[in-house]
Amino acid sequence: MLMSASIAITQLLKPLQWTHLHVPLAPLSMVDDLLHYPAPFLLGIPTDEKRSSAVLRALPPDVTLVDLDVGRVVLAPVFAKDESSSGGEASESSSRALRS
Q1: What value, to the nearest 5°, has the Cα angle with vertex 50 and ends 44 and 51?
Q2: DSSP labels, the chain
Q3: I want to staple 85 with a disulfide (CB 3.0 to 4.6 A). Which of 10, 67, 68, 90 is the partner?
Q4: Cβ neighbours of residue 79 under 8 Å, at least 6 residues apart?
Q5: Distance (Å, rounded) from C-alpha 80 to C-alpha 98?
């Protein structure tokens, strides 16, 4: 499921092409380094190992997590709040739109 979802995301971009880092199934030995990659990336991180939960809890602040196991999206803090408005209802509606 992880590899299929990762590849499907890149296919949804057509006719554009994803030219950044894309690792559909990243080995846990490399995940720490890949999460700090300085450009956009798509990583598939398996959660069937104990160490992966610690990695997912310590995500960098600019990473958005899509958890396929439980069907949730954890937005990066820069997307979770709308800095262009003063907060309130507009900010919450932007966050809701990104989550959906």
Answers
A1: 65
A2: -HHHHHHHHHHHTTTS---SEEESS--HHHHHHHTT-SS-EEE----SSHHHHHHHHT--TT--EEETTTTEEE--HHHHS-TTS-STHHHHHHHHHHH-
A3: 90
A4: 64, 95, 98
A5: 8
Q: Which residues contact 90 (CB under 8 A, 6 or more apart)?
A: 82
- 38 cis-preceded (ω within 30 degrees of 0): no
> Higher confidence at residue 97 or residue 31?
31
Q: What is the pLDDT of residues 36-60, one digit of tens each?
A: 899 999 999 888 777 777 888 888 8
